[in-house]
Write a structure and sequence with these properties.
Blueprint lengths: L16 E3 L10 H6 L1 H7 L6 E6 L2 E6 L2 H9 L4 E2 L3 H10 L8 H11 L8 H18 L6 E2 H18 L5 H23 L9 H34 L5 H7 L10 H31 L2 H15 L13 H13 L6 E5 L3 E3 L2 E3 L4 E4 L1 H5 L49 H18 E5 L7 E3 L3 E3 L3 E6 L10
Helix pairs in contact: 4-8, 6-7, 6-15, 7-8, 7-11, 8-9, 9-11, 11-13, 11-15, 12-13, 12-15
The chain binds protoporphyrin IX containing FE (HEM).
């Protein structure tokens, strides 16, 4: 990768189409996507701005230029969420906001948006703080922790408790988490090889069982809340997400049906839990391996938190923590690849693309593109500007550029972006205020591209940063 950025090529009209080399007869580039998808994707921008690959006999077009990506993501009617990945996800988890096609999207987004208003964030942040306090209190000096599991447990607990309030017990949360984990491990392979379940294997049976458990729990929780009506709403003060979804009305005054509620709940946990947990896991890994960034983080959290759990009000006073999270999202965007399917013939980068073609949007490609990010593979939190305490306010800020899109762009842009940034900032600051983490394994940590880009295995050893940590105050 080059150390000097090429000037951004700014318009989609200047873009050029190309074909990726190295496709195999019959299977095309599938072996690359199954074995080493990241290095394969990372190699594509060298060939062009819209690069044709082959998924078996089918062509797919990968967007390797931010302006082309912006154009595609802005037009959900032409570039729709249909095709094998979405059909598989809808069959498994339902037709919710993160999986629905364009035809259903506007109504669903209108119904969901109020639950994500800024004024509700303080309540959600309290739930996050309680979950984070449990984690930092549970760790023992020197005892190895599996960070991927710990962060997944934290973010599923936060997702379930913000959705359902305190109605769900720890046992149910555990079962929901395990079934979601099995689904997330299986969905990427099923998108590339839809026939994988046609032969029953222990794997496919486990996958089917996990989905059945998932459906049973979600259906029961939603039905209980409906049946509990006013009593239960009073108990939760109507402050959890589910109460807000039950109260939501569309343009015609219509409420969500039972089925819609079920699907939205499933999709919110699906879209919100592993994305957030893998961001946290990557961030803790990056911090442990970059002593200067770690020192700056410790100095900031010591000054602001004094060993306590971060609150929502602390977030603006944690600019370095925020930059570290953003840089982690740039290097390891959890939603690393998002497909679309063309609903009509369309011209892209001077090439005719037929209706029914697969288009691939990949934040990973755009974030690592040497033409748009200086020294793209290096962890440099200072490249981001938060506007607070920046020594160089004129530095370009990837946050506002179309080549930095961890939360997507256009009408489908993540509805939970502020929620996720709040949760990751509170968690990173609170963990760093109490613990220093060091790798417990000499094995290198590799990215595993499942439906979410996750570290392979991340075992770390916490040591206390202060002799007498203050009692958790969440
Ligand atoms: C670091 C954490 C997260 C990342 C990186 C992330 C990333 C994304 C991306 C890239 C999209 C666009 C998908 C597309 O265009 O098809 C998206 C959509 C979505 N996200 Fe997130 N997300 C995160 C956390 C969350 C959280 C915490 C929630 C919910 C509480 C959430 C709920 C959703 C939903 C419902 C959509 C669909 C939006 C729509 O189509 O209108 N996400 N997310």
């Amino acid at each position: 990768m080059t150390a000097h950025p090429q000037p951004p090529r700014s318009t989609a009209t200047a873009t050029r189409a190309a074909r990726a080399p190295g496709g195999w007869p019959v299977v095309g580039h599938l072996p690359h996507l199954l074995r080493a998808p990241l290095s394969f994707l990372g190699s594509l921008p060298a060939h062009g701005d819209l690069v044709e690959i082959r998924l078996g006999p089918r062509p797919a077009f990968v967007l390797c230029h931010p302006e082309l990506a912006k154009q595609v993501m802005a037009d959900g009617r032409t570039f729709d969420r249909i095709g094998p990945l979405y059909e598989g996800s809808r069959a498994a988890l339902g037709n919710g906001l993160a999986t629905c096609p364009h035809a259903d999207h506007r109504r669903q987004r209108l119904l969901m948006q109020p639950a994500f208003r800024a004024e509700h964030l303080a309540g959600y942040a309290d739930v996050m703080r309680a979950g984070i306090a449990t984690v930092v209190d549970r760790w023992q000096p020197g005892a190895v922790v599996d960070i991927v599991d710990e962060m997944f447990a934290l973010t599923t607990t936060v997702a379930v408790r913000t959705l359902f309030g305190s109605d769900v017990d720890d046992h149910d949360i555990g079962e929901l988490r395990d079934s979601l984990d099995t689904f997330l491990r299986g969905v990427y392979v099923r998108a590339l090889l839809p026939a994988v379940d046609s032969v029953p294997t222990p794997n496919s049976r486990r996958y089917a069982r996990a989905l059945a458990t998932w459906r049973t729990h979600v259906t029961r929780i939603v039905a209980d809340r409906r049946a509990g009506g006013a009593d239960q709403a009073e108990r939760t003060d109507g402050h959890d997400l589910l109460s807000r979804l039950i109260a939501a009305r569309d343009d015609d005054g219509g409420a969500m049906t039972e089925r819609e509620l079920h699907d939205q709940v499933a999709v919110l946990i699906l879209a919100g839990a592993e994305t957030t947990s893998s961001t946290l896991a990557w961030t803790l890994h990056l911090v442990a391996n970059h002593p200067d960034a770690e020192r700056a983080l410790h100095a900031e959290v010591d000054a602001v938190l004094d060993g306590g759990i971060a609150t929502l009000d602390d977030v603006p006073r944690l600019p370095w923590t925020t930059k570290v999270i953003r840089e982690s999202l740039r290097l390891y965007p959890p939603a690393w690849v998002l497909p679309r399917t063309t609903t009509r013939d369309v011209d892209l980068a001077g090439r005719r693309v037929r209706a029914g073609s697969t288009i691939v949007f990949s934040p990973y490609i755009l974030h690592r593109h040497p033409g748009f990010h200086d020294d793209p593979d290096r962890f440099r939190p200072e490249r981001h500007s938060t506007g607070v305490g920046d020594s160089d306010r004129s530095a370009p800020d990837p946050w506002s550029r179309s080549s930095f899109v961890p939360f997507g762009s256009g009408p489908n842009k993540c509805i939970g972006d502020t929620f996720a940034l709040t949760e990751t900032t509170l968690a990173l600051a609170s963990i760093a205020a109490r613990w220093r983490l060091r790798p417990a394994d000499s094995r290198p940590v590799r990215p595993v591209p499942r439906s979410v880009l996750t570290p392979s295995r991340l075992r770390m050893r916490p040591t206390p940063r202060h002799a007498h940590p203050p009692a958790a105050d969440a």
